[in-house]
What does this fold into?
Amino acid sequence: MKWMKFRIKTITDAEDIIISALYDIGLEGAQIEDKIPLTALEKEQMFVDILPDAPADDGIAYLSFFVEENEEGKPVVGGEPCDCETILSRIGQELNELRTFMEIGEGSITVSETEDIDWINNWKQYFHQFYIDDLLVIPSWEEVREEDRDKKILHIDPGTAFGTGMHETTQLCIRQIRKYLTPETELLDVGTGSGILAILALMYGARHAVGTDLDPCAVDAVAQNMEANGIAEGAFDMMIGNIITDQAVQDRVGYERYDIVAANILADVLVPLTPVIVRHMKKGGIYITSGIINTREEMVRQAIEQAGLKVLEVTCQGEWVSVTARRDR
It folds into this structure.
């Protein structure tokens, strides 16, 4: 499959209006390149704790639109074959009209051709089966080797939701869950993503799990991974919403209900989450946190202790830290 790429140099203030204008002429799937800093919500939804320094925002943006070519090599726009010159003319006309009432920057257009773009699947070449201690984690597109068939196996397909188990923070959580799990465990996984922590808990014998996440994409990812691992419908309940601020989510999750709460998220999110989550834990319940870069360990520990929880242990892998605590009262 071949695609034609139309890349426009503009300014960040004009991104949305140019995308809207070009959608109207049949161009879809805009790719945005700029240096605008991430919002608080975007940072909250990422799994890293401290982001690398980014270059200063210079106001420049690049918008790329990818147009599929048919068997004859002609780009197809709005379901109809076209040609490169016509598309360039339409883009130029839209940009010139926008210039009459707003600043759009340089507005230059470059054209290139790419092959075999598979936006959903190309990243899979970087994710292969691996072990977490004695657990084999294998993506849905790989086969289990004959010599591994007697192993405990987690089949995982992250989809568009985070969570493959490769990251140190996830592995720290998995080890702690396995340590404290019992056949009676009710588990809450805050920021469940692909559902890997809750699904593993169920595979190792937990009675029931609930997952919350901000990203609606997590719903499909969890459903697919439940099916891949033979998790019965009803064993894992999924909820979308912010448990820190949304009373309705808190009520649905339930109070003094959970033996284990796992939260593999940002340290900056763990701080406001912790005093809220205590109300959802049973007395004697275990709170497993991760996603904490080692420089933020003390901040999280203080939040946990101020919420009335007792820190039981701190485990580390690389630069990452997991703090495990218990609710004694």
Summary: The first helix runs from residue 15 to 24. The longest strand covers residues 281-293. Residues 44-50 have pLDDT under 50 and may be disordered. Residues 2-115 form a domain with the Alpha-Beta Plaits fold (CATH 3.30.70.260).
